[in-house]
């Protein structure tokens, strides 16, 4: 396991904000030489602390105009029911995140769609017909004043 000392924590914080920063600029921001910084980043990657790098997409520019968080309660609390639900959800391109949670429901989904009509179709014709689903509650995102993913 890689030691997460203060310098590694600073490296991760900077990379979270800008994954495309040059090693030279990163080294300067965290107070290391370029070679020492590169070694640390490579170790963080090798050990799996850094799992990858991603592009942050402006959803509206690719036609996503509707975002919702959806809670899903299952009608059966078996491992088989959960696995079947997770397989079905993994095929749904509208579902950007799926979390198995504690509480009164089993899942919390982040769903992105073109518009309300597209979401309604997905909700009714895809999610709503899954045999494991007992309850669905939708929370429409009106604004995101803080979103560390962007």
The main sheet comes to: 4 strands, antiparallel
Q: Strand arrangement, largest sheet?
A: 2-3-1-4
CATH superfamily of the largest domain: Lrp/AsnC effector binding domain/regulation of amino acid metabolism (RAM) domain
H/E element order: HHHEHEEHE
Q: Roughly what fraction of the amino acids lie in strands? A: 15-25%
Descriptive notes:
With 150 residues, the chain is an alpha+beta fold. The chain has two domains: 41 residues, Arc Repressor Mutant, subunit A; 82 residues, Lrp/AsnC effector binding domain/regulation of amino acid metabolism (RAM) domain (Alpha-Beta Plaits). The protein contains five helices and four strands; from the N terminus they run αααβαββαβ. Strands 2-3-1-4 form a four-stranded antiparallel β-sheet. It is elongated and about 55 Å long.
List the helices and strands and how they pair.
Elements lengths: L5 H12 L5 H8 L3 H13 L19 E9 L4 H12 L4 E6 L6 E7 L2 H12 L5 E8 L10
Antiparallel strand pairs: 1-3, 1-4, 2-3
Helix pairs in contact: 1-2, 2-3
């Amino acid at each position: 396991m890689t030691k997460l000392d203060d310098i590694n924590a600073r490296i991760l914080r900077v990379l979270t904000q800008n994954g495309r920063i040059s090693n030279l600029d990163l080294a300067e921001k965290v107070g290391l030489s370029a070679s020492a910084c590169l070694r640390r980043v490579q170790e963080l990657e090798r050990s799996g602390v850094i799992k990858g790098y991603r592009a942050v997409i402006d959803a509206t520019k690719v036609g996503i105009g509707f975002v919702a968080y959806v809670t899903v309660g299952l009608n059966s609390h078996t491992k088989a029911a959960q696995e079947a639900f997770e397989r079905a959800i993994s095929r749904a391109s509208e579902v950007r995140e799926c979390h198995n949670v504690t509480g009164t429901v089993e899942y919390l989904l982040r769903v992105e769609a073109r518009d309300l009509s597209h979401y309604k179709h997905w909700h009714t014709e895809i999610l709503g017909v899954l045999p494991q689903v007992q309850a669905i509650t939708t929370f429409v995102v009106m604004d995101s004043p803080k979103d560390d993913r962007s």
